[in-house]
Amino acid sequence: MPTASDEPDTTTIEVTRKQARTDKAAVDLARTVYLAMTGRPAPATVDVVAHKDRWDVTFTE
C-alpha cells in the first residue's frame, strides 16, 4: 500500500479565461503564481486541464 511519501507532491492553480486567453498564457501565469507562493520556480512537469471557463494547471514535483 503506497504511503503519502510515495505519492508525488502536486500543486494545482486555477486560471480563469478572464486572466488568460490561451493555455500557454495560463501556464505562464500559473508559473508566476507558483513562484510567488513558494519562492522557487515551478516544476517542469505540468498538466493542463481545460474547462469551459478556466484551466486547471497542475505542477508535479
Q: Could you describe the 3D structure shown?
A:
With 61 residues, the protein is an alpha+beta fold. Helices cover 26% and strands 33% of the residues. It contains one helix and three strands; from the N terminus they run βαββ. A three-stranded antiparallel beta sheet has the order 1-3-2, with helices on one face. The chain starts with 9 loop residues before the first strand and ends with a strand. The mean pLDDT is 93.
Secondary structure elements and pairings:
Elements: E1 10-16, H1 23-38, E2 45-50, E3 54-60
Antiparallel strand pairs: 1-3, 2-3
Short description:
With 61 residues, the chain is an alpha+beta fold. It is built from one helix and three strands. It has a three-stranded antiparallel beta sheet, with helices on one face.
Question: What distinguishing features does this structure have?
Answer:
globular; 3 strands; alpha+beta; three-stranded antiparallel β-sheet; 26% helix; 33% strand
Average pLDDT for all residues: 93
| Rg calculated over all Cα atoms | 13 Å
**What class would the helix/strand composition place it in?**
alpha+beta
What are the low-pLDDT stretches, counting only 5+ consecutive residues below 50? none
**Terminal CA distance:** 21 Å
Largest sheet: 3 strands, antiparallel
Shape: globular
SSE ordering: EHEE
Strand order of the largest sheet: 1-3-2
Helices, by number, come to 1
Number of strand elements: 3
Proportion of helical residues: 25-40%
Strand content: 25-35%
